[in-house]
């Protein structure tokens, strides 16, 4: 009867329309939680909490987007059903392990992104079979080990990016097999050592990024083996000196050595790099720079900005050299007063004078003595070294680690930069224990059973930046213990026996930025503990026995950025003390016994606080206004493992990226409606579960119906569905642009800072676009 109403032709066209649409959707396989585009052959399954690679993805798919799932482990042959893939996106999937041969069938893949996962080890065959791969991103994981041969099958790779991982060391031939690699990115790791052949076999590499690591010396030998590199970035490494012919790279044109701790550079430092045109040594501590020696390349640009360049007669040769060679100088004079702030490029050589004949002679004399090679540079490359120690000429490292010394050895080369004495039995450190080693930057005295550090123990160590006294038996420090350390920046006193804060010793170390006192037994923080250390940025007090914080404790802490107080005995949030630390960004109170957080507890940190840890505290209640003031600044909030039945309204926290509410006995009833509405609004994947009423125990707050009946809850969807999209037929959508995660500002003291109680377990990552939070 129906057909009688419709003209036959219309019926046919209707039918063919149906045939066009429906069969395409029905016959092509599309996993339930995904969106499939049959024209572009893409499958998108973003933020679906998938625990496996969906097995029903259509074989002809070329782009598979699995960002934001919960895959944990990629098994062998994980993609064997989709051999035509060219693009595979696996960011934010909690991947811990990539098994051997996980990608074995993907011989056509050109782009693989594994960023923001938890991968620790790159196994020998992790990337087997990726014979067409051009770009591989493994940024922001936890890679600390690259097994030999891990990249041996990636003969077509152009770009390998391993930034923001935990690499400390690159062994010989780590990247063997990358026969077409152009750019290798290793920025933001903790690299402090590169084997001589670390980059062996990379004959096509033109660009190498090693910035933001812990390299203390220019790795001359290693770099010399990179014949094609034109750009090398080593900025933000703690190097103090660039030695003779340190940079020997035939094709290098751009070299970045900015933001380091350079105090001097040899005038032949770049003489073996004939192609160099751009040298950036900005933001170091250089006062004088000599013109590069004859035979050095003629630079086009020399960036000296941010150095305390002293524009007197000693700078004149550089200025004249720059004029002769048309080298553009960037930067300004740091002194004397009448030239201070003047552009180097604008200063005429005759203006570069030393005040008087006498001053000039004196300065010349000083300069001359400074340039005399130290007498210890002995003939046949032998380096001075005390008995029962090992000293390396090339790296300027000296070590007597764990050799049973009972007295601090003497007689190290005056060029020593790193002195490692850990694991001996010194018991005490007498005055003036380190004569003749004024160049040491890093001194290790961990595990030496030290009970006392005498006044002036380190005097003369003018370049010392890192001092490690961790894991000793110190109970106190005298006021002059750190006398004569004008540059001390990182001080490690964790795991000692301090029962009170070693107040008063910081008067002499105004340069201190990070102070570690974890795992002592300090019981209270008294007024003015930081007197003298007014520039302190990070204070680590996790694992003490602090039950009292004086309101005046942090009086001098206006620059404090990181305060870790986890694992102490606090009963209340020390709000009043915090009011003196108005620039605090990272506050950790985990593991105290703070049962109740009252109104405005963090108000003084409004505008600065980004990370707040309140987990594992047995907390029973947070007042509705407890988070008042913490608006869009807050990025992470950890509240897991408490006794909360309710949580305050989170709506003002519009920029939250991580929140953890797991392991709280939430009461799923109307008072929790604001949380339920908030979850809906931000579309967060929240693991908050109900504990009460009993019939709802274990259900996700997001999935229970009770809230709909509450006043104000009418707008909630009537049937909370697990996967709203599964009801509809798959629709054709273009793949969305790559989700750009808000890069959180990296901690300046990354490698030095020990983390507090592990907050990673069961964190809930924000998985939606920022726009949806507005
Ligand atoms: C995600 O999957 C895991 C494992 O299947 C499950 O325990 C968890 O409850 C899921 N979370 C959400 C928000 O669906
Ligand atoms: C403090 O002690 C705990 C427990 O032994 C340990 O896990 C942590 O790494 C220690 N932290 C430091 C900085 O020593």
TrEMBL record:
Residues 713-738, 750-774 are annotated as: Disordered. InterPro entries: Cys-rich_flank_reg_C, Leu-rich_rpt, Leu-rich_rpt_typical-subtyp, LRR_dom_sf, LRR_TM_domain-containing, LRRNT. Residues 719-730 have a biased composition (Low complexity). GO terms for cellular component: plasma membrane. It is found in: Secreted, Extracellular space, Extracellular matrix. Residues 29-63, 384-418 form the LRRNT domain. Pfam families: LRR_1 (PF00560), LRR_8 (PF13855), LRRCT (PF01463). Residues 1-27 form the signal peptide. Keywords: Disulfide bond, Extracellular matrix, Glycoprotein, Leucine-rich repeat, Repeat, Secreted, Signal. Residues 307-355, 664-711 form the LRRCT domain. Associates with collagen and binds to collagen fibrils. Potential negative modulator of chondrocyte differentiation. Inhibits collagen fibrillogenesis in vitro. May influence chondrocyte's differentiation by acting on its cellular collagenous microenvironment. Belongs to the small leucine-rich proteoglycan (SLRP) family. SLRP class IV subfamily. This is Chondroadherin-like protein. The lineage of its organism: Eukaryota, Metazoa, Chordata, Craniata, Vertebrata.
């Amino acid at each position: 009867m129906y057909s009688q109403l419709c003209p036959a032709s219309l019926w046919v066209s209707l039918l063919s329309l149906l045939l066009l649409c429906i069969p395409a959707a029905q016959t092509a396989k599309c996993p339930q939680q995904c969106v499939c585009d049959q024209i572009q052959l893409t499958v998108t399954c973003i933020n679906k909490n998938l625990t496996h690679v969906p097995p029903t993805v259509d074989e002809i798919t070329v782009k598979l987007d699995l960002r934001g799932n919960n895959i944990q482990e990629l098994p062998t042959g994980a993609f064997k059903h989709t051999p035509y893939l060219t693009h595979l996106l696996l960011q934010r999937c909690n991947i811990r392990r990539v098994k051997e041969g996980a990608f074995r069938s993907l011989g056509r893949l050109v782009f693989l992104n594994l960023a923001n996962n938890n991968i620790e080890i790159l196994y020998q065959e992790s990337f087997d079979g990726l014979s067409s791969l051009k770009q591989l991103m493994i940024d922001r994981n936890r890679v600390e080990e690259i097994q030999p041969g891990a990249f041996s099958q990636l003969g077509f790779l152009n770009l390998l990016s391993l930034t923001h991982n935990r690499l400390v060391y690159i062994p010989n031939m780590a990247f063997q097999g990358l026969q077409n690699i152009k750019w290798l990115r290793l920025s933001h790791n903790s690299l402090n050592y590169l084997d001589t052949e670390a980059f062996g076999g990379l004959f096509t590499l033109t660009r190498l990024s090693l910035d933001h690591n812990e390299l203390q010396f220019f790795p001359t030998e290693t770099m010399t083996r990179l014949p094609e590199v034109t750009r090398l970035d080593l900025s933000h490494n703690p190097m103090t000196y660039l030695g003779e012919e340190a940079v020997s790279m035939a094709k290098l044109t751009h070299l970045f050595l900015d933001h380091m701790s350079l105090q001097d550079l040899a005038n032949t430092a770049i003489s073996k790099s004939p192609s160099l045109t751009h040298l950036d040594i900005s933001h170091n501590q250089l006062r004088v720079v000599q013109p590069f020696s004859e035979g050095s390349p003629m630079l086009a640009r020399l960036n000296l900005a941010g150095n305390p360049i002293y524009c007197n007669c000693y700078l004149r040769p550089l200025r004249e050299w720059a004029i002769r060679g048309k080298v553009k100088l960037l930067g300004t004079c740091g002194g004397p007063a009448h030239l201070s702030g003047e552009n180097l490029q604008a200063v005429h050589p005759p203006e570069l004078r030393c005040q008087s004949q006498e001053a000039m002679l004196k300065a010349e004399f000083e300069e001359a003595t400074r340039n005399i090679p130290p007498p210890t540079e002995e003939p046949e490359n032998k380096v001075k070294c005390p008995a029962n120690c090992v000293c390396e000429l090339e790296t300027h490292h000296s070590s007597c680690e764990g050799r049973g010394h009972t007295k601090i050895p003497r007689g190290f080369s005056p060029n020593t930069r790193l002195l490692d004495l850990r694991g001996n039995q010194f018991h005490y450190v007498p005055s003036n224990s380190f004569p003749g080693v004024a160049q040491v930057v890093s001194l290790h005295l961990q595990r030496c059973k030290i009970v006392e550090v005498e006044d002036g123990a380190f005097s003369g160590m003018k370049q010392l930046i890192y001092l490690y006294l961790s894991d000793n038996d110190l109970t106190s420090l005298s006021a002059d213990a750190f006398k004569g350390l004008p540059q001390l920046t990182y001080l490690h006193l964790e795991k000692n026996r301090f029962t009170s804060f070693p107040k008063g010793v910081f008067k002499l170390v105004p340069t201190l930025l990070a102070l570690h006192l974890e795992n002592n037994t300090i019981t209270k923080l008294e007024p003015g503990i930081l007197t003298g250390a007014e520039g302190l940025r990070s204070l680590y007090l996790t694992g003490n026995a602090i039950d009292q914080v004086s309101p005046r404790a942090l009086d001098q802490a206006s620059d404090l950025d990181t305060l870790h107080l986890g694992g102490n005995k606090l009963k209340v949030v020390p709000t009043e003390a915090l009011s003196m630390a108005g620039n605090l960004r990272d506050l950790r109170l985990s593991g105290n016994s703070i049962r109740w957080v009252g109104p405005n507890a963090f108000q003084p940190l409004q505008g600065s606080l980004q990370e707040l840890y309140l987990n594992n505290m047995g907390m029973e209640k947070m007042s509705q206004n407890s988070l008042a003031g913490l608006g869009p600044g807050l990025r992470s909030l950890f509240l897991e493992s408490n006794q909360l039945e309710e949580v305050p309204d989170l709506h003002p926290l519009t920029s939250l990226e991580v929140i953890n509410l797991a392991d709280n006995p939430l009461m799923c009833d109307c008072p929790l409606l604001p949380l339920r509405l908030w979850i809906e609004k931000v579309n967060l994947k929240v693991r908050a579960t109900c504990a009460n009423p009993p019939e709802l125990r274990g259900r996700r707050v997001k999935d229970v119906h009770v809230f709909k009946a509450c006043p104000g809850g009418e707008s909630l969807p009537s049937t909370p569905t697990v996967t709203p999209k599964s009801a509809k037929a798959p629709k054709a959508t273009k793949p969305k642009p790559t989700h750009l995660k808000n890069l959180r500002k990296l901690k300046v003291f990354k490698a030095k800072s020990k983390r507090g109680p592990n907050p990673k377990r069961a964190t809930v990552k924000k998985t939606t676009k920022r726009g949806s939070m507005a």
